[in-house]
Write a structure and sequence with these properties.
Length: 137
């Protein structure tokens, strides 16, 4: 069993599609091992996206991530990291396959509805960023 971190971003929370997004994970065999709805500060968003700190979109991305509440989850299942990425679709919704979350709900490459860990290493960092061990069951 593998674990990955998922975020429903402020654009999707504002669209009131938390339930629709979560049901896609469940329908594809992923289990929600932890979940909470929180509001990030700018500093927290910068800490989470630290690997992107030198990218030109860093300031805009971290401001967007603070514009409203987000839902953070630990998803668990066989090949959870790759499976979650397939369910999400490409980062840029213009390139996302039909039926993926980003094709259906994302507005742009930045306001792209969801985040998912891209490797085992980033999943380990990202899960610990948001959750204590005893919150994950
Ligand atoms: P995410 O999967 O959360 O990982 C980094 C985020 O940066 C990405 O989704 C997008 O929201 C954002 N992002 C990536 N590339 C760009 C870009 N070229 N312009 C603006 N935002 C981007």
């Amino acid at each position: 069993m593998e674990q990955t971190l998922s975020i429903i971003k402020p654009d999707a929370v504002q669209k009131n599609v938390i339930g629709e997004i979560i049901s896609r994970f469940e329908q594809n065999g992923l289990r929600i091992a932890a979940m909470k709805r929180i509001q990030l500060s700018k500093r927290e968003a910068e800490g989470f996206y630290y690997v992107h700190k030198d990218r030109p979109f860093f300031d805009s991305l971290t401001t967007f991530m603070t514009e409203g509440p987000i839902v953070v989850m630990v998803l668990e299942g066989e090949d959870a990291i790759a499976k979650n990425r397939a369910i999400m679709g490409a980062t840029n919704p213009e390139n996302a396959e039909p039926g993926t979350i980003r094709k259906d709900f994302a507005e742009s490459i930045e306001r792209n509805a969801v985040h998912g860990s891209d490797s085992a290493e980033s999943a380990a960092f990202e899960i610990l960023f948001f959750f204590a061990g005893m919150e994950i069951r």
